[in-house]
Amino acid sequence: MIKPRVLDLFCGCGGMSLGFEAAGFEIALAIDNWEKAILTYNHNHPSPVGEVLDISEFDDDRIDSLLSRGTIDGVIGGPPCQGFSTVGTRDVDDPRNFLYQEYCRIVEKIQPKFFVIENVQGMLTLGGGFFRKDIEKRFGELGYSVNFTILNAAEFGIPQSRKRVFFVGILNGPKFKFPTGESIPDVNTKDALSDLPELDIQHEGIHKFPYPGPPATDYQRYIRGSAKSVTEHLITMHTEQTKSIIGMIPDGGKIRDLPSEYWEVRKYNKAFQRMPSEGVSATVDTGHRNYFHYRQNRIPTVRENARLQSFKDDWVPQGSKTSQYKQIGNAVPPLLAENVARTLKKYL
Predict the structure, then answer these.
(1) Does residue 159 surpass a pLDDT of 70?
(2) Has 13 been annotated as catalytic?
């Protein structure tokens, strides 16, 4: 059976691509202007289809070259969201806010059967809803029935509260009905992380660790993938004072659980918290210093953040540790993308 072929714009390290591939799609090309993310993308794909390219440079000649190699059935991607984000300053005039127009230009040229845009919730409200209305108008004029909703990764068996808006357009078809995740069991942070080795030192020079035992949950069995050992699991070394402060925050607690003299220790007090062992993690962001392991007095490792985003253990990010955290925090959770993709296949 021929797999539907997809173009991934703003692909980052490949979360959405992995989800679509798991659902039976083929990625024909993936582009992003961030070289380190493309290094990760290609390292984790048997055919390195990732290309370092700014979307403005993806012109008609490049599109024609892509189409000469086969039909493109869908276009997917998440334009940069910093200008829409409710964290920090929202700027209506941030040039990144208008990159969806480049996305639209490419869709107009290719005319795929469907498109998927993922972004932060702020895209719906910034500018009095201008961006949402403009997306519906532009793609509607191209013949797409456009639907949008907010999906929370936690409702799809992912151990993280992550609410993102998804726009899906079907060419000359009915409006897309989004999956709900109702039949998918919840996964908490303990379910996701408890089988990883417990480390209290950095283990300089050691980059692979054996699993301490068999997987204890269905999620652990799934997330190990084909990996035989754990990588990207080096801890960040904290001072004894920092570990002492973290240690005062209870399971699932926040900065207000500390004595009042510590309340100003971080500007974003709401983000200074410990994961709940029996609940889902807060949103995994591009940093990593504001939330802590549910039991150990430290920030999550790169591998733990990857698991919270539903990247399997055989997926290995490239670049510096800081870059790896950023790549993971920017990504679409593969399991969430897979659920959207499986539903989309019914419309093809």
Answers:
(1) yes
(2) no
